[in-house]
Structure formats: C-alpha cells, structure tokens
UniProtKB/TrEMBL annotation:
<keyword id="KW-0677">Repeat</keyword>
<dbReference type="InterPro" id="IPR019734">
    <property type="entry name" value="TPR_rpt"/>
</dbReference>
<keyword id="KW-0464">Manganese</keyword>
<keyword id="KW-0802">TPR repeat</keyword>
<feature type="active site" description="Proton donor/acceptor">
    <location>
        <position position="281"/>
    </location>
</feature>
<dbReference type="Pfam" id="PF13181">
    <property type="entry name" value="TPR_8"/>
</dbReference>
<dbReference type="InterPro" id="IPR013235">
    <property type="entry name" value="PPP_dom"/>
</dbReference>
<dbReference type="InterPro" id="IPR004843">
    <property type="entry name" value="Calcineurin-like_PHP"/>
</dbReference>
<dbReference type="InterPro" id="IPR006186">
    <property type="entry name" value="Ser/Thr-sp_prot-phosphatase"/>
</dbReference>
<dbReference type="InterPro" id="IPR029052">
    <property type="entry name" value="Metallo-depent_PP-like"/>
</dbReference>
<comment type="similarity">
    <text>Belongs to the PPP phosphatase family. PP-5 (PP-T) subfamily.</text>
</comment>
<dbReference type="Pfam" id="PF08321">
    <property type="entry name" value="PPP5"/>
</dbReference>
<feature type="domain" description="Serine/threonine specific protein phosphatases">
    <location>
        <begin position="181"/>
        <end position="457"/>
    </location>
</feature>
<dbReference type="GO" id="GO:0004722">
    <property type="term" value="F:protein serine/threonine phosphatase activity"/>
</dbReference>
<dbReference type="InterPro" id="IPR051134">
    <property type="entry name" value="PPP_phosphatase"/>
</dbReference>
<dbReference type="InterPro" id="IPR041753">
    <property type="entry name" value="PP5_C"/>
</dbReference>
<protein>
    <recommendedName>
        <fullName>protein-serine/threonine phosphatase</fullName>
        <ecNumber>3.1.3.16</ecNumber>
    </recommendedName>
</protein>
Length: 475
C-alpha cells in the first residue's frame, strides 16, 4: 500500500510540476520511489530529467546511466544521458547515445536529427581545435574606426569614442524598445573593456568606505528587463552607488547581448566602482550550447562571438571586499590549504578547465553536511560547513558570497551564516517561479542586507531561443 500511495503521489506531483516547476520536490519523490524499487528505469529516467532542469548534470548523467542499466531498451534513458553529456561539453559521448537511439528507432526522425546535429558539433569542435594553434587575436584584426554609421541609425553614439552617462541612459532606453547598438560602438566597447580587464589581477581587492553602500548581484542570465528592474529598485551604478555582478551575465535568457553591453558599458564608465566576475557561463563551451553564441551571431557576427570569448577569458575570478568577504561565482575547493595568494596566482586567460582552483571557483556548490562530495553538476565539488569555516579561518575572512544556484527566495544563508548564495534572475528561464535578490553592504560593518523582487514583464521572446536545438526539452 505504501508503494502504491507513493506512485500516486508522484503522478500528482508530475501534474503539479508541469505548472509550478517544483523539480526539487520531484527529485525527492522519485528518490523515495527508487528506495522502494531500485530496478525501475522510468524512475531513474524521470529523476534524471528533474536533475537536468535544476542543472545537476552529473547527477542526471548517473541516473540516466542507471536507467539504461535497468532497461537497455529504455530509449528515454539514452536521450537523458545524451543531454547530460551535451550540457557537460562531452559531445562525442552524447553523439554515441543519439546514434544508439537512431539505430534502435530507424524511423524516429527526431532521433536522427539530433544525431546529425550532434555530429556537426563534434566535427566543428575538432576543426576549431585543429586550427587553434597560435591564432591571432580577434581584437587585433578589427578596424572599427572604418565602420560607417548608416544614415537611418538613431541609437546611442559614443562621445569621442568614450562611454558617458548619457550614452548609457540612451543605450538602456534603446534596448527597452528592442533597438540595437551599432556594430561600430559594440566592437569599440568590447575592445576597450578587454584592454581594461587584461590589466586587472585575478583577485580584485575592493575597499568599501565606512559610510558607503555596496551592492552585490548574482546571476542575470540574459534577463535584461529584470536587470533594469534592479537599477529601478537600487539606483543606477555610479561612483556613489557601486556594484559587483558575480558572473553568469549571459546564456539561457534571450536578451544576453543587451545585458552584457549594459554591464560592460558601466564598467567602462565607472572602472573603480563597477565590478564584474567571471561565471561558469562566461566560456566558449557554455555559450555554444546555451544561447549566447547564437544570439550574438543573430544580432551581429560570428567574429564578434569570438571576440566575446577573448574578453571573457580576462574577467577576474574573485573579489575581496574590505579584506573581509570573498566573492566568487561558484565556491570553494577540493583542497584544504588554499589561500588568497593561490587565487591571485591562477592563470585565468583560458577556457575554464575541468578541475583545479579555477574550475572550482566557477562551478562548486555548498552542501549542508560536513566534508566534500562529488558535485551533482559533474564539475567542481560540493563543500560542507567545515570546509567553509576552515577556509575562512586560514584566510582571516568573515564569510563568502557566491551565486550559481537558483534559490526560491533569491538568496540562501548557509553554513551558520558563513556562506551566502545570491541569485538575481527571477522566474529563471520563465519557468522556475523563484524570486531574484541582491545584497547591500555598508563598509562599517559588512553585514549583508537582502532585497528580493519578482520578475517583470518582457517582450514575447522565449528563453533559450538562440540555444542549440539539442537542448530543447527531451521526451
């Protein structure tokens, strides 16, 4: 009776999650079902799907593999595993699973299409690797000075090649009306901001005067109209209203171009009062899958998407606020002896590696129990309260701020108040129903205060519009 009751509860939960997107509850229910029947491929397959939607790609991969082991003919297991491999950038392994589906279902047009698309990606990656030896910088090959403004262009213009507050206000107004920044100015902003980032260290030290406010924002993920709402609520960036945006500015949301040029513009306008950290989505592999590369190509050129990769490679990895609070996108490390000097020494000008300090800064997540575990994402590590406390003690810090995870309230305080997660993209991907949040601090006590907000309306352009078609919802 207990087992049948649980099955009925899962069925009801599936119906509810179609509207409420409560994937965490679905994971919990399927976990209970698996405890009662560990050989049911469907339970593993459905929990794998829930893990995919919560971006726990490593856990999704493990469950899909278990589903296949339980039933070699369970086709959805191969689909799930392929999507997990794709999300982790393991395209050859994904191709193998898509081909397996196409083999057992020769008349399945969707399976055949996915196999063909994945094969194209594998060949493209191999080609890029083959020609990548000592290629010239894209920034050095762009002659934006010779680009001509068309007579019908009515958007914002740089003043003597420089970003001004008036330019930024016109830019945001143009974007709100779904207008476009001219390519001449877009390239100039990218060129200038790259020059700025290359001169900065990997770990930025940020002093906050005693009576000054400082704002920390988490993931934005291409949700431009929610970014504008933050500025409505908290004021525009300025020398007296400094901000730190803690990574994942792009991907998923389909207004990523608007977000990134707004943020880069403010960085150029207020270089010492506006800060940006790299997230795991500021990388070529992620942009290729989750929409930013496709969006840049649609709105500008492939050349510009390559230039963005060069800029992202120079983004700082962490910020140290008043020598008391360390801010990074992901989290802490597999090693116990990491110091701030170790972070300073990281060679960041590259695609994020699959392990090591740089990877963990961008990908790791906290967990409630002590110790460390393999990450559910399949990259980075999960770290417990003891790991956080030891790191803080070793480096004479008070607490850490990180982002990287959707939280229903927009934020979460964990590890006895020593590990704070901030997530600033409300109703993430138009489906998750979460609030967004940002943190404000005062220099005199560095005590975090949280402001939460709901999503605001945006034009009828769906998230993931520009993403790789293989990441559409699986069957």
């Amino acid at each position: 009776m207990a087992f049948m009751a649980l099955v009925q509860l899962i069925q009801k939960e599936q119906e509810r999650t179609q509207t409420e997107q409560d994937y965490e509850q679905a994971i919990n229910l399927y976990t209970k079902a698996i405890e009662l029947n560990s050989n049911n491929a469907i339970y593993y397959g459905n929990r794998s799907m829930a893990y995919l939607r919560t971006e726990c790609f490593g856990a999704a991969l493990r469950d899909a593999t278990k589903a296949i082991a339980a039933d070699r003919d369970y086709v959805k297991g191969y689909y799930r595993r392929a999507e997990a491999y794709m999300s982790l950038g393991k395209f050859k392994l994904a191709l193998s699973d898509y081909q397996a589906v196409a083999t057992v279902r020769p008349n399945d047009a969707e399976a055949k299409r996915k196999a063909v698309e994945c094969s194209k990606i594998v060949k493209k990656v191999a080609f890029e690797k083959a020609i990548s030896v000592e290629t010239k910088s894209i920034a050095d090959s762009i002659d934006f000075e010779s680009m001509v403004l068309e007579g019908d262009y009515t958007g914002p213009t740089l003043e003597d090649g420089k970003v001004t507050l008036e330019f930024m206000k016109e830019l945001m107004d143009t974007y709100k009306k779904q207008g476009k920044l001219h390519r001449k100015y877009a390239y100039k902003i990218l060129f200038d901001v790259k020059q700025m980032f290359t001169k900065q260290p990997t770990l930025i030290e940020v002093p906050i005067p005693d009576d000054s406010k400082f704002t920390v924002c988490g993931d934005i993920h291409g949700q431009f109209y929610d970014l504008m709402n933050i500025f409505e609520l908290n004021g525009l960036p300025s020398e007296t209203n400094p901000y730190l945006f803690n990574g994942d500015f792009v991907d998923r949301g389909s207004f990523s171009v608007e977000c990134i040029f707004t943020l880069f513009g403010f960085k150029l306008l207020y270089p010492d009062h506006f800060f940006m950290a790299r997230g795991n989505h500021e990388s070529h592999n992620m942009n290729q899958m989750y929409g930013f590369e496709g969006e840049v190509k649609a709105k500008y050129t492939n050349q510009m998407s390559q230039l963005f990769t060069e800029v992202y490679n120079w983004l700082p990895l962490a910020h140290l606020l008043n020598n008391k609070v360390l801010v990074m996108h992901g989290g802490l490390f597999t090693k116990d002896d990491v110091t701030l000097d170790d972070i300073r020494k990281i060679d960041r000008n590259r695609e994020p590696p699959e392990d090591g300090l740089m990877c963990e800064l961008l990908w790791s997540d906290p967990q409630p129990q002590n110790g460390r575990e393999s990450s559910k994402r399949g990259v980075g590590v999960q770290f417990g309260p003891d790991v956080t406390h030891n790191f803080l003690k070793r480096n004479n810090l008070e607490y850490i701020i990180r982002s990287h995870e959707v939280k229903s309230a927009g934020y979460e305080i964990a590890h006895e108040g020593k590990c704070i997660t901030i997530f600033s993209a409300p109703n993430y991907c138009d489906t998750m129903g979460n609030k967004g949040a940002y943190i404000t601090l005062k220099g005199n006590d560095m005590s975090p205060k949280f402001t939460t907000y709901e999503a605001v309306p945006h034009p009828d352009v769906k998230p993931m519009m520009y993403a790789n078609s293989l990441l559409s919802m699986m069957p």
